Amino acid sequence: MNDETLQRISRTYGIENWSAGYFSVNNQGNMVVHPAMSDPRWADLKNVVDHLLKDKKLQLPVLLRFPQILTNQLKILTGSYREAIEQYGYKAMHYPVFPMKVNPRREVVEEFLKDTSKYRVGLECGSKAELYAAIAQEQTPESLLICNGFKDESFCRLALLAVQSGKRVVIVIEKLNELKILLRVCGESNVYPWIGLRAKLYTKGSGKWASSGGDSAKFGLTTSELLECLRLLKESGKQQLLHLLHFHIGSQITDIKRVKNAMKEAARVYAKIHQLGYPIEFLDIGGGLGVDYDGSKTRTESSMNYTVQEFANDVVYTVQTVCDEEGAPHPNLVTESGRMMTAYHTVLVTSIREEIETFADDLPEVTIDEDDPQVITEMKWLLDDINGKNYFEYYHDAVEHKDELHTQFNLGLVSLEDRAKGEVLYWEICDRALKESEQTRNPNEEFEDVKQILAAKYLCNFSLFRSAPDSWALGQLFPVVPLHRLQDSKIDFATLVDVTCDSDGKIDKFVDLRDVKPILELPEWKEGNDYFLGIFLIGAYQEVMGSFHNLFGLPNEALIHIESDGRFHVSKIVQGSKIQDMVAFARYDAIGLQDHFQRRLKAMISGGHLTQQDATILAQQYESAASWTTYLD
Description:
- The protein has 4 domains: about 190 residues, Lyase, Ornithine Decarboxylase, Chain A, domain 1; about 250 residues, Alanine racemase (TIM Barrel, Alpha-Beta Barrel); about 80 residues, Methane Monooxygenase Hydroxylase, Chain G, domain 1 (Up-down Bundle), CATH 1.20.58.930; about 35 residues.
- Helix 8 crosses helix 9, helix 14 runs antiparallel to helix 15 and helix 14 runs parallel beside helix 16.
- About 45% of the residues are buried.
- The chain is globular, with a radius of gyration of 30 Å.
- It is α/β, with parallel strands linked by helices.
- It has 23 helices and 21 strands.
């Protein structure tokens, strides 16, 4: 592949900007995955997909999970804090905790915990179900099990089971009443966890989740509630249980200045509590460490203006400075950076199945009859005479003619056939005018809307609501790149639509270094040929937040380990949802449905509309359909 082609690919997809070194393009024009930046090991994603489809008999869509990327992200996180601690002479340690809400899948949690002794990796849970799963996981005794979220008596009792099993449990108090419940339950069982208090800081984050912090935040204790908790602990003689102060100012913080302000405020609160005589020793800074989804390194909502090392440096330096001023010991720093830890490790692979065209470019050429309405004749004349000098004027004339055509149709003055002729002519004029505009040195901005309308709509075999819900719900940008054919010179402008029957099931905002693109440049789609697209950086929140809209289920899943020289190993395959799984999710009984269908067939037989032999075949087909995939074959 020559340098010019590489530069075009770079401009179009910006892979080197958002991939953090995990993804690149090889000389064959295929996307390649690496287990770490600058790692010589690699695997061709097109080859991976071919192997899964042909040798493992999987169907698309398929979720590719790369556990080595999880391990490397953990290494980057802990290494950044270790370097900052050494650089500034910080006199405490870093405790990474993985928040299960980000991605509770067993394969993800266990991958982090396999390094629990090396990095003191712990878990954070915010519900009884997460806590139930976390209790049984293997952790080093030094690591933490943080219990966040709203808690009732049964939550507290479940957490005490973790204490009795040897876990280092910290129950974080979100509301004043939770502390009263916890102290009562602990008194009855004589089992006591460590206690943490979640402070509601004045400082707010930035980006989509800025409302997680500040005065109106959902979680956290006000200053007066914080003092009341301290009083209750001292009054009950349990002040020695207080070990942690927690805060969280929002996910995906885009601006490093907000981090510095939050650290100053939180460190001050920690120091004041320590001065009151409480043995607090951990400062949990929550999550918020961002992911640069668009690669722009800016304060936009899909980016952030700092690196992981800069984030760690600011946390360590700011907390140290405040504590030294207050004469308080440096606290151990707990982080819950789940987005940064998981986003990169997952790629959803889908395929383009069809093109939904604004106008069909393979229709016969429009011919004009002598009895055609004048508006049709004039539009045909515009199409035949358009050129590089008059295209702008002729485009505006065509817009007026299209409006006139529809007005005459509504009045019954033109036929359906005439309307079809006029619409084809209009879109052909738009297409010609757009091409003329693109040939100029400074294309007219008015044609950006035309380009978007004329862009191909590629039907892709996946559900946006299941696999990338934040794209729909929050406008989150996820990089979309073909897995192959990147060197092709013939390009289509396109948006993507999914297989759900929802008009919101589309991706029409794409990563760009300077802006957000409404269309994506893709190698031309050809019917009958394989065409694989990857949606990248969806490892955080997307799996757990996805919905079963239209009862489209979980995609197939494969865990891939990258070896060397293009070799890879499929360590695990998880089958996606079948029709029977999804109807059960909707509370239908599969056997009951089959019984109801049998009764309908019997009624058809009784009415003489169906033979017994045909009814038996239909019943077998209906039963067999339960094991089909919910996606397109």
